[in-house]
Amino acid sequence: MPKVYNSIIVPAPVDAVWSRIRDFHDFSWAPSLVTSCEKVGPGDGNTVGARRRLNGAFLDTLIAYSSIDRRMTYSMDDGPSPVSSSEIHDYVGDLHLLPVTADNTTFVEWSAAWESNNTDAVGYMNEAYQSLLADLSAGFGAGRPDQPAKHGKIPG
Amino acid sequence: MPKVYNSIIVPAPVDAVWSRIRDFHDFSWAPSLVTSCEKVGPGDGNTVGARRRLNGAFLDTLIAYSSIDRRMTYSMDDGPSPVSSSEIHDYVGDLHLLPVTADNTTFVEWSAAWESNNTDAVGYMNEAYQSLLADLSAGFGAGRPDQPAKHGKIPG
Amino acid sequence: MPKVYNSIIVPAPVDAVWSRIRDFHDFSWAPSLVTSCEKVGPGDGNTVGARRRLNGAFLDTLIAYSSIDRRMTYSMDDGPSPVSSSEIHDYVGDLHLLPVTADNTTFVEWSAAWESNNTDAVGYMNEAYQSLLADLSAGFGAGRPDQPAKHGKIPG
Amino acid sequence: MPKVYNSIIVPAPVDAVWSRIRDFHDFSWAPSLVTSCEKVGPGDGNTVGARRRLNGAFLDTLIAYSSIDRRMTYSMDDGPSPVSSSEIHDYVGDLHLLPVTADNTTFVEWSAAWESNNTDAVGYMNEAYQSLLADLSAGFGAGRPDQPAKHGKIPG
Question: Please, which residues bridge with residue C3 across strands?
């Protein structure tokens, strides 16, 4: 089971970070990677079962949501290669915030796991999540990492 | 922090039990205790933030929902004595299903915890949850427990 | 990532069941399958890092242990085919008890997951866990399941 | 139920931080607060049931331990006022590490909860955990926080 785990510190209080990301249908905080986020079907962005299409290519469904734990879990039902539904299946992603009380910032962890006969998608998804996390942190004033991820391969 | 934990085996597959309880606004499976379940405000029964009023007296808000774990978590924001908002606060309840693979039945656990200066509500809430669980199990054909809970004190 | 999940109800209180299984080095409660359980290296049966050899063939290491949650987690570092270290890796098993308060019995869940290029070990391990759980339950007086698992393929 | 939650970023990889704290009987990494850490009874520092006495006054028992999750959970069975066994009970503390992959540092969270008729111990324990976390981080080269905690009230 290929899996990825990425995490970052965002220089803002946990409630501020949660406010920015809590709507499953709003990805405006990740402009480097996400050029469009379209609501698909019924259900608001805090409704389990809500769907979104990212960059016209990735189709996600919200499968668990906790405002008390500041956590959302979703399946990725389709995407471009190497994460198309013919290459991988049972993709589950999980985005979770925890407060760093020592300096009132936020620990953000983003993990995913899926089934596949190969690990071709691991590097691709690591790059995607690193870009998303860097954007989230930069949106609160953090510098970009020294070695910026190259996003050329992510559709957009 | 007063807390309660109750659990039961329901003689049906876990998907069948989840189908019956998964709508936060539908409590028709618990007729012994719940005489009315009214949707309050926007949001369907799988939407975090959805609200319900039970028996005209209890006000609940859905705060976490996972269809993959078959779990829902809610706050009880008000209720009759001894669980009124002047007597207790920070009430969180959690309903969770797990499959019993040996005989294709379902383990149902229902826990709750709250803050209070006293433990007056413990017996009251244990009685409520035992009644709800007994109804759920009876709805799938289980016999009622030998010592039926007395529900006289629960509004309805 | 192949995985298995098996669960059963044991007709005894959760503390009694935990007392029987809590020693990682004692598998006397599973006579159908486990003919020998040998302590390997230092560390008692509640010590993370403790090791055991089952039936002279399976080598397990305790990696997490919680008496408060009545849960133990272990890696299986080697075994006979199809779970030998050349066929699978990163095998983690998890044994967990929860009380069934309605009738003072115990829900036992036993899951495992591992990495492999194939799913050959799934049926084998399901059979093993079903036998172990049936023995645990039978040790407290439960009848054996109608369709007894066949254990012929498990070394012993 | 009074509870405390403190967290910090430690400027070192998660495996290095875990190596430093993983022995329940070794508190040499927290010199500001812990002047002595004495092993009590049998069981090494990764054994559930292991006990320690800190500063001759606090008595802790390890109740859960996971090397895979880098987490340890313990009860505090006695201590000086305001955490003596006559003032509080059912004290459970939990220390947990997560990797910050963006810069190869470590998120450390330390929580505790207990039962009491008052919240007198909250400030006292917050101060203790903040000091412990600051020491852990300083041991890996981090600067002390601008507003150093005052430790005068912690026995030592």
Answer: C113
Please list every residue in chain D whose beta carbon sits closer than 8 Å to the beta carbon of residue C71: 64
CA-CA-CA-CA dihedral for C45, C48, C49, C52, to nearest 10: 30
In this complex, do B64 and A69 lie within 8 Å of one another by their Cβ atoms? yes
Residue found by looking up tokens 């967990």 in the block? C96
Task: Choose which CATH entry (1.10.10.10, 3.30.1360.20, 3.30.530.20, 3.30.420.40) describes domain D3-138.
Answer: 3.30.530.20
pTM: 0.83
Angle between helices A14-21 and A120-138 (to 10 degrees): 120
For chain D, domain boundaries: 3-138
Give the ipTM of the model, two decimals please.
0.91
CA–CA distance, C15 with C70 (Å, rounded to integer): 9
List C-alpha distances in Å: C65 to B147, C23, C135, D19, D51. 37, 10, 22, 18, 15
Q: What are the tokens at D55?
A: 């500063």
Q: Which chain A residues touch D107 with a CB distance below 8 Å?
A: 7, 9, 98, 100, 107
pLDDT one digit per residue (tens) for chain A, 156 residues: 899 999 999 999 999 999 999 999 999 999 999 999 999 998 899 999 999 999 999 999 999 999 999 999 999 999 999 999 999 999 999 999 999 999 999 999 999 999 888 888 999 999 999 999 999 999 999 876 554 444 445 554
Query: Three-state secondary structure along C124-149?
Result: HHHHHHHHHHHHHHHCCCCCCCCCCC
- Tell me how close the Cα of A62 comes to any Cα of chain C, in angstroms: 22
Q: Which tokens hold the place of B118?
A: 């006293």
- CA of A145 vs chain B CAs: smallest distance (Å): 33
Chain C residues with CB under 8 Å of D67 CB are 48-49, 63-64
Q: Which contiguous run of DSSP H or E holds residue B16?
A: helix B14-21
CB contact under 8 A, A43 and B47: yes
Strands A58-66 and D3-10: unpaired
Q: Say how many CB pairs under 8 Å bridge A and D.
A: 59
Work out the end-to-end distance of chain D between its first and last CA atoms, rounded to an integer number of angstroms: 27
pLDDT in tens for each of the 156 residues of chain B?
Answer: 799 999 999 999 999 999 999 999 999 999 999 999 999 998 899 999 999 999 999 999 999 999 999 999 999 999 999 999 999 999 999 999 999 999 999 999 999 999 988 888 999 999 999 999 999 999 999 876 554 444 445 554
Residues on chain D touching C70 (C-beta within 8 angstroms): none
Number of Cα atoms under 13 Å in the Cβ half of residue C9: 22
Q: Which two tokens stand for residue D66?
A: 């996971």
Min Cα distance B102 → chain C (Å) is 5
Candidates A7, A8, A129, A132, partner chain D, best to mutate (most D CBs within 10 A): A7
DSSP D33-97: T-S-EEEESS--TTBTT-EEEETTTEEEEEEEEETTTTEEEEEEEE-STTSSTTT-EEEEEEEEE
3-state SS class at C120: helix
Bridge partner residues of C47 (DSSP): D47
- Hey, which chains touch B, using 3+ CB pairs under 8 Å? A, C, D
- CA atoms within a 13 Å half-sphere pointing along the CA-CB vector of B76: 26
* Residue from A45, A95, A22 nearest B47 by CA: A45
Residue D131, min C-alpha distance to chain A (Å): 10
